[in-house]
Specification:
Herpes Virus-1; Znf_RING; about 180 residues; metal-binding; 6 helices; mainly alpha
Length: about 180
């Protein structure tokens, strides 16, 4: 371990004949001598319940990194971050490529369907529609805008006045009830 380690109680540093050092779960470092003076599973500084881990070369890399110089940590994590960044960039590129291919296929399908619609429209003659196309073909049916009375007089089944006169017989003798 490159960073100087010292006991948070007696401030001694590790040396060859000195006892081992331990790290508590609350983040304090103690030598074995000071740990034995205190209560078991209680921190000597903050008095909280804690667990301890012996500091050695076999300690987990995460705990060892707490005592490494910053420049070493920077190189180590910089390399790891670069690897993660490269992986994520490759992943994003693959995903982007997939979506671009999918978009290209969809655009091609859209183009084909548009061409088919245009071909169908070219083959069909355009229909001429008028607002009253059904009534204009049959003149005997009055349109909504026509006057009902004018339609009746034009297409009436009543005989005209001349036809009525011709069909009547005229009596030249006046009737007794009639006053002349």
């Amino acid at each position: 371990m490159a960073v100087s380690v010292f006991c948070n109680s007696c401030l001694c540093e590790p040396r060859a004949p000195t006892p081992r050092f331990c790290l508590t779960s609350c983040g304090h470092v103690f030598c074995e001598v000071c740990l034995q003076k205190g209560k078991k599973d209680e921190c000597l500084v903050c008095k909280r319940a804690c667990r301890t881990v012996v500091l050695s070369k076999e300690t987990s890399p995460d705990i060892q990194s707490l005592f490494m110089p910053i420049d070493v940590l920077n190189k180590k994590y910089s390399k790891e971050i670069s690897q993660v960044s490269e992986f994520q960039e490759k992943y994003r590129k693959r995903l982007l490529k997939y979506h671009k291919q999918k978009i290209a296929k969809l655009e091609e399908s859209l183009k084909k369907v548009t061409q088919q619609i245009q071909q169908i429209q070219c083959m069909k003659p355009p229909e001429k529609t008028t607002p009253f196309s059904s009534t204009s073909r049959n003149p005997s049916i009055p349109s909504r805008k026509q006057n009902v009375y004018s339609s009746y007089s034009l297409h009436s089944s009543r005989p005209s006045t001349s036809e009525t006169t011709e069909a009547m017989e005229i009596d030249p003798v006046p009737s007794p009830m009639r006053k002349v």
